[in-house]
Design brief:
Strand content of chain A: under 5%
Low-confidence stretches of chain A: none
Number of strands of chain B: 8
Structural class of chain A: mainly alpha
Oligomer: heterodimer
Largest sheet of chain A: none
Order of helices and strands of chain A: HHH
Number of strands of chain A: 0
Number of domains of chain B: 1
Strand order of the largest sheet of chain B: 1-2-3-4-5-6-7-8
CATH class of chain B: Alpha Beta
Bound molecules: zinc ion
Number of helices of chain B: 9
Radius of gyration of chain A: 17 Å
Structural class of chain B: alpha/beta
Largest sheet of chain B: 8 strands, parallel
Largest interface: A-B, 37 and 45 residues
């Protein structure tokens, strides 16, 4: 089963929605820098912000299957079970080896 | 007409049943899950299993919706192995209830050793009673690793993957799941899982065999009408009615009918 649409139809149908999402991302990065303790996002130590910046690079690399590769980029690539669950939630970016869990982890159903 | 094969009505209002019926929902299945708080004893789960096998089928029936269920202790409450084993011991007493399809949603959450022990014991229980299995895969960064560990655990006990549905697949796990012979579910859930658009993309890339879609609507920000919205997305793209029906009705019916318990009316 392939896409029944032409590229022009896909763009017509979805461009404005994704233009808005790109704008949201830009405003989010601006908001982090404008925060009371804000600093340039390019030097952020927060692994979630770093994961987003790496994702932007991936989007522009010209290779296919961006969604799969993006999810892989954000995934824990270790293979062994961990000793004990440190929390119930997840943060959305691959943890750094040995790092303490982030306090901002969302509790998800 | 559609089936939502994964939804947590315990967390939803009766208005949602009404809206789902209006949108064409004829059957749902409700896996046991983490209710957003930790239960302090096995009795809390016994009460929950009573709700899943008695209260909810009656509430759904008011709107012409058939309600089926899956029983387990979920991975988020599996870190305490002692409690998990007490709950596991209570499950067989409920297996004869007419709306019980199997064991679920079992799996992993943070991919811990204790979660894996409790998962193994659930798989053994399902195997012993020849029950279908519905699998929850972990969230976000934990999903890829957890999906692999879960599939290994199931295969190592010799369970037929054709009787197991691995739910919450995304672009990075769908192929792994299908290639090993399992069924795959895509959950249409804001922010943390698939959008209707991405689910339609995944069908276009990986086909529609052994796949279903569900809302997994629950106590989080979620949408009990996500399945009809995905059907609408596919229709807008020009997909055939037969294809849309396959992923939202024929496929879930085929998988669930293996239980010998699933009925639309
Ligand atoms: Zn669920």
């Amino acid at each position: 089963m392939s896409s029944p649409q032409t590229a022009a139809q896909v763009i017509d149908q979805y461009f404005l929605e994704h233009r808005a999402k790109a704008l949201d991302l830009a405003a989010f990065l601006d908001r982090i820098e404008r925060a009371s303790d804000g600093a340039p996002v390019a030097g952020s130590h927060d692994i979630r912000v770093r994961a987003l910046l790496r994702a932007i690079d991936l989007l522009r690399d010209g290779k296919p299957e961006r969604a799969r590769r993006l999810l892989e980029l954000w995934s824990d690539q270790t293979t062994e079970p961990i000793a004990k669950a440190p929390m119930k939630g997840a943060i959305g970016a691959a943890p750094l080896p040995g790092a303490a869990p982030l306090s901002g982890a969302a509790s998800l159903p | 007409m559609y089936i939502d094969p994964h939804i947590h009505m315990v967390s939803r209002t009766t208005d949602d049943y009404q809206r789902m019926a209006l949108a064409g929902c004829v059957a749902i299945t409700e896996p046991a899950f983490w209710a957003g708080y930790d239960r302090s004893s096995a009795q809390g789960f016994v009460d929950y299993f009573g709700l899943l096998t008695d209260t909810e089928p009656r509430r759904a029936a008011q709107f012409g919706i058939k309600h089926h269920t899956w029983l387990c202790i979920n991975p988020k409450e599996s870190e305490d192995i002692g409690l998990a084993r007490e709950v596991l011991a209570e499950i067989p007493a409920f297996l004869d209830r007419p709306n019980v399809l199997g064991i679920g949603e079992i799996g992993l959450n943070k991919n811990s050793r204790n979660e894996l022990v409790v998962l193994d014991e659930h798989i053994a229980l399902a195997k012993k009673h020849n029950l279908l299995i519905l699998v929850h895969t972990p969230h976000l960064e934990d999903k890829l690793k957890g999906t692999r560990l879960i599939m290994d655990a199931i295969i190592s006990q010799g369970v037929d993957p054709g009787r197991v549905l691995i739910d919450h697949v995304e672009e990075h796990t769908v192929r792994l799941v299908l290639d090993r012979g399992f069924w795959a579910g895509m959950t249409l859930y804001p922010d943390t899982k698939c959008t209707p658009q991405r689910a339609a993309d995944i069908f276009e890339m990986h086909g529609t065999d052994r796949m279903w879609i569900n809302s997994a609507a629950d106590w989080g920000v979620s949408d009990p009408l996500a399945v009809p919205k995905c059907r609408d997305e596919m229709r807008r793209r020009g997909h055939l009615d037969a294809v849309i029906r396959k992923v939202s009705f024929d496929n879930p019916r085929a998988f669930l009918s293996q239980s010998g318990r699933f009925a639309i009316s």
